[in-house]
Design a protein that fits this description.
- The complex is a heterotrimer of chains A (79), B (234) and C (760).
- By secondary structure, chain A is α+β, with helices and mostly antiparallel strands.
- Chain A has two helices and three strands, in the order βαβαβ.
- The longest helix of chain A has 12 residues.
- Chain B is built from five helices and eleven strands.
- Chain C folds into three domains: 234 residues, Alpha-Beta Complex (Phosphoribosyl-aminoimidazole Synthetase, Chain A, domain 2); 287 residues, PurM-like, N-terminal domain (60s Ribosomal Protein L30, Chain: A, 2-Layer Sandwich); 212 residues, Alpha-Beta Complex (Phosphoribosyl-aminoimidazole Synthetase, Chain A, domain 2).
- Chain C has 26 helices and 28 strands.
- At the B-C interface, helix 1 and strand 6 of B face helix 8 and helix 10 of C.
Chain lengths: 79, 234, 760
């Protein structure tokens, strides 16, 4: 089974990478792009034979996969 | 006095920290592998610079879960002195021993150069041998040295004189030009509320010998020795 | 289970094997090869691995000397003695073609590869250098009709992208693994368009008794694989490097590997830890041709055989065929021959460092490289015939006719410049990316880790304190390829002299050389002639300066649709500085210091950067070099340095005296001017200031020592003259009644920000 995690910088945190990419897109001829934010997308494959420990997964998202000081995460469990 | 230099997989300034403590300052220093579980024997614990776990995921994000970190937290609670340099500072923030986070340099480039720092406070075990306002010339070498924290944290740090070093120009002015990475309020180093944990991005271990260009890093080590009641090495 | 394709003439040709070579393979095996064996031969006999077209020439290098502990060709890197039982292992290698396709990873994996070559010798790597060349990143001053054309703009954009990518890749790998990158050179020239050169150098330190060898010794010893899992990276990368770059080859992305510097840091520490025990009988890194190369070479060196079972090899992909596993160039892997009974030590150490490892084979006494897959033989080849008996070719050489415009004619072609033009020429030369400050680059490299960089990037040579040994090592990389394009032999002779001169300026005595030869397709007789001439020139130089070649690399087929690159025989030279007090840097220090020119004023403008940058001409003969005079210069300079007279020393190279003097003023911690007077020279001002005649160094000495310094030079029979004084805010140059002024800060800005301005 595959679980997807998206980690994004918090809205309030400056994302210099996103700014640089937005500017690059403008140079590529799309001035209407207002903003770009860059995060991380993780695909986690889980052994199907185990029962899914959803609470533990959230803990891992909070403690390891994201830094709550500067990032938010979304966990998507597909059946 | 005994000092520990923790080695995480990917630490690469460990030998430099060991050299300065052990050879330049004559302090009995030991390497501690990240899988060890006790740091009881040490008075000073150093988290050196480098790229622990390749800086993968986030700088210091994986190292903070190393077995040795449990003992590190205990030692911090006991009031032992803990010094986090560069990647070490990043690990301390990830471990919540210090507030805030270090993110990508505003310029998006890794920067290695000498910078000037202003000593903001001498009321700490790491700066008591300096003078407030003193300018130090210390090298930085990082891609993620941009200190960031929310308004409340910055207010608290300022209120309690927990910002120990800021990037400054030769005249002591805190300017954007003097800031190599865009960090909030030119913050280069901070301590915890108890003042026994200090994290800084610049490398004092690269400025402890004349032959390398600057000896300004010595004052941090001298402060530590002062605090632990050791007379300075010759 | 997939079946391998049948071997057809097309498949043989696709593997880069000629019909003759195929016959040779059949006679070695006594039968037809199978597909896996064909692949194995194709990588081992590729140009990159076998040097089949250059080996005959390489034999011309001097490789022996009293200080040589491991000579060229014996192992992965040469080792020289630095005194007190310490030695240094060093080498330079190229990663040109991968960097053209994917500059970041191409450069990064190049760095990873050269670092492995050093620690496989048992040495701890302590610093890196690199020599990089790209197409122009700035518009030429005088280009021709298409100066403003879209074509030039898009080429510049590509060159900038490659430059930025390569620098970022080197930074990424070097910084992460914690080895400082402390010097090198960077050139920009049209001939490198589409075919950048990335030559990377690494030096490591070890005690004599720590020298490790890549031989499979000890029949019955287990063979271990350690490091990263094997994937499909860089399949046939070695064969890829042996073909010219075309539009189509850009699709060959599988030939580019992705490096993991974190893994390599772990591997480095684990290997050094293991080498400190007595568990290791032999060790070899898996670089080009991965498992294939390491297996047959260790067997060949050991005079033994090695048998491995691919089922035991750690893999990160499923369904890999024996062909793929043997040819994979996955990074960060080593092959270790372990002393029987010591297997547990290997396991303990690699467990500690969380690295994959596996016992994959055994050393046998039958001289064969035998590859099994789940116990079934899939390849069986006599090891030494595979490793050492690649065909050797004699290529046809035909001199390239270069435009040898005489000095007199060059002076006629270029009108004598006005004072304003002279002033502007110096500014333009200093702002040309080849000459300008490289700070945009080295600020991205951690050049201070390991607490040893005593002379930071920006001076003539890097100087590093190897603390373990208590020794100061100076190192430099040099090659003026413009000279080589017009006269490869003289250009190569000069490259060695320039490297030695740079070391002398830092206070060092040269010890040895590593070379990286970068040339075009050797099947074109003119290219091969350039190779031969360059090798012979380098050999002469190395003999004259007593710097044996300890190893190096050959990169051929550096061509793109527009033609071959300028012949570029890069010289990496290492020297020793006996005493900390002798360490010398290039910039002027204090007001009142006396400026002395050691050597002639010179006059040769052929092949000069002045001609190229200001007049768009790569023309004329390069300056002539006289080794007797050059050696006398170095000896005298060192004598002055050892007598504590010298406050700064900087050699004359691209841009001549004008650039040299300006750099002395602007490259230090603080900008400082100088007043220079050449008196009556009888030369045109551009000829005086921008000629690139050889064997010249500008030094500054304290006022009180000037007379003694000049006397020492006179006593040694070396031409020298006092030309001025340090001080002020301007560089003033007087000659033949003319007077030129430049504001030192203005020059500094132009020089310091030139590359940054191109790249932002």
């Amino acid at each position: 089974m595959k679980v997807k995690v998206i980690v994004m910088p918090k809205q309030s945190v400056l994302d210099p990478q996103g700014v640089a990419v937005r500017d690059a897109i403008h140079h590529h001829g799309m001035p209407e792009i207002k903003s770009v934010r860059i995060g991380k997308f993780m695909e986690i494959e889980i052994d199907d034979s185990q029962a899914l420990a959803e609470e533990k997964l959230h803990e891992i998202c909070r403690d390891l996969l994201s830094n709550p000081v500067i990032e938010d995460y979304q966990l998507e469990i597909k059946n | 006095m005994k000092a520990a230099v923790i080695r995480f997989p990917g630490s690469n300034c460990d030998q430099d920290c060991f050299h300065v403590l052990n050879n330049v300052f004559g302090v009995e220093t030991h390497y501690v592998w990240h899988k060890e579980t006790s740091l009881d024997a040490f008075d000073l614990i150093v988290l050196p610079g480098g790229f622990s776990y390749g800086d993968y995921l986030r700088c210091g994000a994986i190292a903070r879960f190393s077995p040795v970190m449990k003992s590190l937290v205990e030692q911090a609670e006991k009031g032992k002195l803990i010094l986090g340099i560069c990647n070490g500072f990043q690990i301390l923030c990830e471990a919540h021993l210090l507030p805030g986070a270090l993110v990508r340099n505003q310029s998006m480039h890794f920067v290695c150069e000498h910078t000037l720092l202003r000593v903001e406070g001498v009321n700490s075990p790491f700066t008591n041998a300096a003078i407030t306002g003193q300018i130090l010339n210390l090298p930085v070498a990082h891609g993620e040295g941009n200190y960031t924290a929310d308004e409340a944290t910055l207010r608290e740090l300022n209120l309690n004189s927990r910002i120990l070093l800021r990037y400054a120009d030769a005249g002591g002015a805190i300017t954007a030009a003097a800031n190599p990475n865009g960090s909030a309020e030119n913050i280069a180093g901070i301590c915890n509320a108890r003042r026994n944990v200090f994290g800084l991005m610049p490398h004092p271990e690269r400025a402890a010998e004349k032959i390398l260009g600057s000896e300004d890093g010595r004052v941090i080590f001298e402060s530590i020795l002062n605090t632990l009641g050791i007379s300075k090495a010759a | 289970m997939t079946t391998d394709p049948a071997i057809t003439p097309e498949i043989i040709a696709k593997h880069g094997i000629t019909p003759d070579e195929y016959e040779r393979i059949k006679s070695i095996l006594g039968r037809e090869p199978n597909f896996t064996e064909l692949g194995i031969f194709s990588v081992m006999w590729s140009e990159h691995c076998s040097y089949k077209n250059s080996k005959r020439e390489l034999r011309k290098f001097p490789t022996t000397g009293p200080g040589v502990l491991v000579k060229a060709g014996e192992e992965n890197a040469g080792v020289i003695d630095i005194g007190d039982g310490w030695g240094v292992a060093f080498k330079m290698e190229s990663h040109n073609h991968p960097s053209a396709i994917e500059p970041f990873q191409g450069a990064a994996t190049g760095v990873g590869g050269i670092i492995r070559d050093i620690f496989t010798m048992g040495a701890r790597p302590v610093f890196n250098l690199n020599s990089l060349r790209f197409g122009p990143i700035s518009e030429s001053k005088n280009g021709g009709a298409d100066s403003e054309s879209k074509n030039q703009k898009s080429k510049i954009a590509t060159n900038r992208r490659l430059f930025a990518g390569v620098v970022a890749g080197i930074a990424h790998y070097g910084n992460c693994i914690g080895i400082p990158t402390i010097g090198g050179e960077i050139y920009f020239d049209e001939s490198y368009e589409g075919n950048p050169l990335v030559n990377v150098f690494c030096l490591g330190v070890l005690r004599h008794e720590q020298i490790a060898r890549g031989a499979a010794k000890g029949i019955g010893n287990p063979v271990f694989y350690v490091g990263a899992e094997t994937g499909r990276d860089g399949l046939a990368g070695a064969a890829f490097a042996s073909r010219d770059l075309t539009e189509e080859s850009k699709e060959d992305r599988p030939a580019v590997q992705v490096g993991d510097p974190f893994r390599e840091k772990l591997l480095l520490e684990a290997c050094l830890e293991l080498l400190a025990t007595d568990a290791v009988a032999g060790i070899q890194d898996m670089g080009a041709a991965g498992l294939t190369c390491s297996t047959c070479e260790t067997a060949s060196r050991g005079g033994t055989g090695v048998e491995i079972d691919l089922a035991k090899v750690p893999k990160r992909e499923v369904g890999m065929t024996p062909y793929e596993i043997m040819l994979s160039e996955s990074q960060e892997r080593m092959l270790i021959i372990v002393n029987k009974g010591h297997e547990q030590t290997v396991c303990d150490i690699f467990e500690k460092w969380d690295l994959p490892y596996a016992e994959v084979g055994v050393v046998k006494d039958d001289g064969m490289m035998r590859v099994l897959d789940h116990g079934k033989v899939v390849a069986e080849i006599p090891a030494s015939k595979l490793a050492d008996d690649a065909p050797l070719y004699e290529r046809e050489a035909k001199p390239k006719v270069a435009k040898t415009t005489s000095e007199a004619d060059l002076l006629k072609l270029i009108p004598s410049p006005s004072a304003g033009a002279v002033t502007e020429s110096l500014q333009s030369l200093l702002a040309h990316p080849t000459i300008a400050s490289k700070n945009w680059v080295y600020r991205q490299y951690d050049h201070m880790v390991r607490d040893g960089t005593v002379v930071l990037p920006g001076s003539d040579a890097a100087v590093f304190l190897i603390r373990e040994a208590g020794k100061f090592i100076a190192a430099t990389s040099d090659c003026n390829a413009l000279y080589c394009s017009l006269d490869p032999r003289e250009g190569a002779r000069i490259a060695v002299a320039e490297a030695a001169r740079n070391l002398a300026c830092s206070g060092a005595v040269p010890l040895a050389v590593t070379d990286n030869l970068n040339f075009g397709n050797p099947y074109k007789p003119e290219n091969f002639w350039q190779l031969r001439e360059s090798v012979e020139g380098l050999a002469e130089g190395c003999r004259a300066f007593n710097t044996p070649v300890t190893g190096g690399n050959v990169s051929l087929y550096n061509e793109n649709p527009s033609g071959p690159i300028d012949p570029t025989p890069t010289v990496g030279m290492v020297g020793l500085i006996e005493n900390e007090k002798h360490i010398t840097t290039q910039s002027f220090k204090d007001d009142g210091d006396v400026v002395i020119l050691i050597g002639d004023r010179g006059s040769e403008i052929g092949a000069s950067h002045y001609l190229k940058v200001m007049h768009g001409r790569k023309e004329g003969l390069p300056p002539r070099i006289d080794y007797t005079r050059e050696l006398a210069l170095h000896e005298a300079l060192r004598a002055l340095i050892f007598s504590d007279f010298v406050k700064s020393a900087h050699d004359c190279s691209e841009g001549g005296l004008g650039v040299t003097l300006a750099e002395c003023c602007i490259s230090g911690k603080k900008t400082i001017g100088a007043e220079i007077d050449f008196g009556d020279t009888g030369l045109r001002p551009d000829q005086l200031l921008f000629n690139e005649s050889q064997s010249r160094v500008v030094i500054s000495v304290g006022k009180a020592n000037a007379a003694a310094a000049l006397a020492l030079l006179e006593w040694r029979g070396v031409t020298a003259q006092r030309i001025g004084t340090v001080g002020g805010a301007t560089l003033e140059i007087r000659a033949d009644g003319a007077h030129f002024t430049w504001n030192a800060d203005t020059l500094h800005k132009a020089w310091y920000f030139a590359i940054r301005n191109c790249m932002s």
